[in-house]
Write a structure and sequence with these properties.
Strand content of chain A: over 45%
Number of strands of chain B: 11
CATH superfamily of chain B: Immunoglobulins
CATH architecture of chain B: Sandwich
Largest sheet of chain A: 6 strands, mixed
Number of strands of chain A: 11
Largest sheet of chain B: 7 strands, mixed
Helix content of chain B: under 10%
Distance between the termini of chain A: 40 Å
Order of helices and strands of chain A: EEEEEEEEEEE
Number of helices of chain A: 0
Helix content of chain A: under 10%
Radius of gyration of chain A: 14 Å
Structural class of chain B: mainly beta
Distance between the termini of chain B: 38 Å
Oligomer: heterodimer
Number of domains of chain B: 1
Shape of chain B: globular
CATH architecture of chain A: Sandwich
CATH class of chain A: Mainly Beta
Number of domains of chain A: 1
Chain lengths: ~110, ~110
């Protein structure tokens, strides 16, 4: 089983600050996904990265997949209270035509006004 | 567009009682379906997945079971609930291609 380590586990910042959260593994992933989950709701897919070194931007969020496809980072510029939530990374383990995802334990982000 | 439904949204059950949680997907055919459990707002634990009707794979030995009676219906069951079964249960689907998973709204189960 591939393991994904996320850091930090918890982050509390003020509105307008920048932040980066990390997702690391010793294993190689076919692709990696980032989700955001608000309390009491299901996770919502933000992005999928599939190519080593790939960078994707979603408004103020920048996602990067490591060259070796073992790690990823999420950078948020000028954080807003609406960014508050649990950020989960998940690695895609291809096997016989179906997929199972290995999830990290998440980074809980709190952005205060 | 595709949508995924789960019910009930919340459930309080006594220890030893049975359980049935239902998940349905609309707008897609032959999806992969998944059941996860999440404890205390942290990472997701995969419980079961299914690649087709009647095909169930179990990831964690436990007193839970899953069934897929129809293409877009996935059911999580238990004959006798334990206190440790409390948690937030999430259903998800993915298509055969991109392997991205889309989650339902979840069911909060409290076993008393």
């Amino acid at each position: 089983t591939q393991l994904l380590e996320q850091s930090p586990q918890f982050l509390s910042i003020q509105e307008g600050e920048n932040l980066t959260v990390y997702c690391n593994s010793s294993s190689v992933f076919s692709s990696l996904q980032w989700y955001r989950q608000e309390p009491g709701e299901g996770p919502v897919l933000l992005v999928t990265v599939v190519t080593g070194g790939e960078v994707k931007k979603l408004k103020r969020l920048t996602f990067q997949f490591g060259d070796a496809r073992k790690d990823s980072s999420l950078h948020i510029t000028a954080a807003q209270p609406g960014d508050t939530g649990l950020y989960l990374c998940a690695g895609d383990e291809l096997n016989s035509g179906y997929s199972t995802l290995t999830f990290g334990k998440g980074t809980m982000l709190l952005v205060s006004p | 567009s595709q949508t995924i439904h789960q019910w009930p949204a919340t459930l309080v059950q006594p220890v030893g009682s049975p359980l049935s949680l239902e998940c349905t997907v609309e707008g897609t055919s032959n999806p992969n379906l998944y059941w996860y459990r999440q404890a205390a707002g942290r990472g997701l634990q995969l419980l079961f997945y299914s690649v087709g009707i009647g095909q169930i794979s179990s990831e964690v030995p436990q007193n839970l079971s899953a069934s897929r009676p129809q293409d877009r219906q996935f059911i999580l069951s238990s004959k006798k609930l334990l206190l440790s079964d409390s948690g937030f249960y999430l259903c998800a689907w993915s298509s055969q291609g991109p392997y991205e998973q889309y989650f339902g709204p979840g069911t909060r189960l409290t076993v008393t």
